[in-house]
Amino acid sequence: MQELSWIREGRCNSRCVKTEMTSRMPSSSSVTQARQLVRQLRMEANIRRIRVSKASSDLMRYCGEQAKYDPLLMGIPASENPFRDKKPCTVL
Amino acid sequence: MSQDPLEGCRISAGKKSAVSLGKALHPPNLLVVVEGTCGACVAASPVSAPEGSCSYNVAHHHLCVCVRVCMAWQGLQKGETLASLKQESENLRRKLEEERGKLTDVELHQVAEKVETVAALSIKTRRVLKGHGNKVLSMDWCKDKRRLVSSSQDGKVIVWDAFTLNKEHGITLPCTWVMACAYAPSGCAVACGGLDNKCSVVPLSLDRNENVTAKKKSVAMHTNYVSGCSFTNSDMQLLTSSGDGTCALWDVESGQLLQSFHGHTADVLSLDLAPSETGNTFVSGGCDMKANVWDMRSGQNIQSFDNHQSDINCVKYYPSGDAFASASDDATCRFYDLRADREVAVYQKDSIIFGASSVDFSLSGRLLFAGYNDYTINVWDVLKGTRVSVLFGHENRVSRVRVSPDGTALCSASWDNTLRVSRT
């Protein structure tokens, strides 16, 4: 049990200890796994796709339409920005 | 299994000797592997089972051996072998690449050449949230655009008001490394989880004197650490990702598992729900270098992307829901379009050699904020693929970046025990 928590800590610390999957997967024949993989790939190969040119232009159009509402992109006019850098003020 | 698994098999009884029989009982369904040491006297050590087998223990004390009955090769079809299935999967993978390639008539950055370049950004750190005693691992904004929740390695979860820097609630968890935290859509609760293998929901009360930790309720139970959590559109359902390789959807009230998502072959490190207008899907990324898109109702893996060369630390949907970005230990961030079913951009530079831990989009989706292990946050132009700006300030690796719900602020959490809220 202690070993296991070390592995978890190691996982968090160095991100290079990969937990062993085989011991935790429900037992199944590799034939079943291979069959499932084939089924999954077949399904993925058959989905409907659109051209990258169409996808790209849609993304660009979305960015363009929403850009004016994006404060981090456009900035906020100094008059409305509560976080603007303060100028020194003089006391008369 | 009504029949006696030992029928027709000769067994050499003997303590502490591993004997393999190799006799098919119900050809080609069963293969019996016998190993020494009875389950009653000494715990049997796992024997390396032949490929294609699973096992359960049947102790036969009078023989003083433990029998593992392997139920392999459940009804192989005629002519179907492991090799033929492997070949078919290779062919299908090739076909998948071909189909994707056919529709790649142009690259995103080429189409984006006619778009105006992003003007120089003037984003500065406006608030530094100090109070955690150890590395801050995760944070999430509340929908009121003002509060945020953060969790840390020391087991503390703090709810802050980002304007006033007030700590509104402090929750202590019995475990360290609270890797996941999320704010409920109503703002009335937070979820958190980590090395305790659980994800708990804590209702927040307006009464300052009330002990919030006492009302903590365990909702999700995994068999390994919880790496990410998110409420769905309501406070009633919670989606979690775990080091056990699965994601799961839970009912908060009853703690019941509603749906589980299997498909990753290693730890799942991150998940993100599609923006509500686009339906019931979510994306997850993990140590198997894959990013998978799932249907929440059926539990089905709809699409899978394996372009990264190392663990995927974070995945985030594009605001329109038609695309998503991922951050990985291979020092790149990538952008995938779901309708074109392929990666459409890679955000990398030779000078960036440290892994990216977290990504988030600005409100319009034009900017991608990515936190890296070299203590910086790089801001990328999503369409053109170029780096717009670098944000400095943290003194240790950046673990999480999140843009506020109204898009006015960026919060970054870091292993330097602080959170920084940056604005223009």
* Portion in strands of chain B: 35-45%
Helix content of chain B: under 10%
Indicate the radius of gyration of chain A in whole angstroms: 27 Å
- How many DSSP H or I helices of chain B? 2
Q: Which second-level CATH architecture of one domain in chain A applies?
A: Irregular
Q: How many beta-strand runs of chain B?
A: 32
CATH homologous superfamily label of one domain in chain A: Transducin (heterotrimeric G protein), gamma chain
Largest sheet of chain A: none
Terminal CA distance of chain B reads 68 Å
What Rg of chain B, in angstroms, do the CA atoms define?
26 Å
Subunit structure (chain B): May interact with RGS9; this interaction stabilizes both proteins and increases RGS9 GTPase-activating protein (GAP) activity, hence accelerating the deactivation of D(2) dopamine receptor-mediated signaling.
GO biological process, one term (chain B): signal transduction
Pfam families (chain B): WD40_Gbeta (PF25391)
Family (chain B): Belongs to the WD repeat G protein beta family.
In short:
The complex is a heterodimer of chains A (92) and B (424). With 92 residues, chain A is mainly α.
List keywords for this structure.
heterodimer; A: 92 residues; mainly alpha; G Protein Gi Gamma 2; elongated; B: mainly beta; four-stranded antiparallel sheet; 2 helices; 43% strand; G-protein_gamma (chain A)
